[in-house]
Amino acid sequence: MDTKLEHEDAGGGFTTAWEQRKVGEIAHRVIRKNEEGVSDLPLTISAQLGLVDQRDFFSSQVASRDLRGYYLLKKGEFAYNKSTSGDSPWGAVKRLTRYEKGCLSTLYICFGLDEGDPAFLVTYYETNRWHKGIRMIAAEGARNHGLLNIAPIDFFETKLTLPSEIEEQSRIGLFFQKLDSLITLHQRERFADLDET
Predict the structure, then answer these.
(1) Long-range contacts of 174-183 (CB under 8 A, 24+ apart)
(2) 32 within 8 A of 49, measured Cβ to Cβ
(3) Which conformational region is residue 165 in: left (phi greater than 0), alpha (psi within -120 to 50 degrees), or beta?
(4) Residue 42 · residue 103 · CB < 8 Å
(5) pLDDT score recorded for residue 139
């Protein structure tokens, strides 16, 4: 693919060709179960907050008390929540960063990254660039009370557009992480100023 991104920053510019890759070419499905009861932390995906403790998010535990049939997700792995909302019309993909491990319902599609930069992938899934691929596999009328009917095999066939060089993926991922942190800092300062008035 001939799409290029050009960016100049204090460290110099970069221009690298981007390519399309199937999710299944850069990631593997995680289907490990919490059979040994390794974790008692039920997780859910919030479109705004990412993977969070379900008990805090819902003020109670929605998951079964016995989490042995749930997927066991480890820090750094990703999950796709097929539930739709106003903020995420095609669901949300988030990376586990807050906890070492946790349990997710088998309704989620979980995966680990084999190639590529995780920070870039986090940034990519914050955009709407991946929605087209989901839209193409979510058949007309496939919504079931806000839950998209998407098979894992189809999810892994969706395509991502990413820089061909991992170094560039890393720089882009880091750039957006810093930008998010800067925005958060300015919002906090602004709210602090409002509190003082």
Answers:
(1) 174/119, 175/7, 175/9, 176/119, 176/123, 176/126, 177/119, 177/122, 177/123
(2) no
(3) beta
(4) yes
(5) 61
Alpha carbon distances (Å) from 83 to 101, 128, 164, 183, 196: 22, 16, 31, 27, 40
Nearest CA among 25, 47, 30 for reference residue 159: 25
Provide φ and ψ at 104, rounded to 5°: -125, 145
Write out pLDDT tens, residues 92-145.
999 999 999 999 999 999 999 999 999 999 999 999 999 999 999 986 444 556
Largest CA distance in the chain: 55
Whether 10 shows a pLDDT value over 70: the answer reads no
Residue 74 DSSP label: E
Among 95, 84, 169, 186, CA closest to 134:
84
Asked if 196 and 29 touch (Cβ cutoff 8 Å), the reply is: no
With the C-alpha atoms ordered 40, 45, 46, 48, is the resulting torsion angle positive or negative? Answer: positive
Structure-token pair, residue 72: 């066991």
Domains of the chain: 19-163 (3.90.220.20)
3-state secondary structure of 81: strand
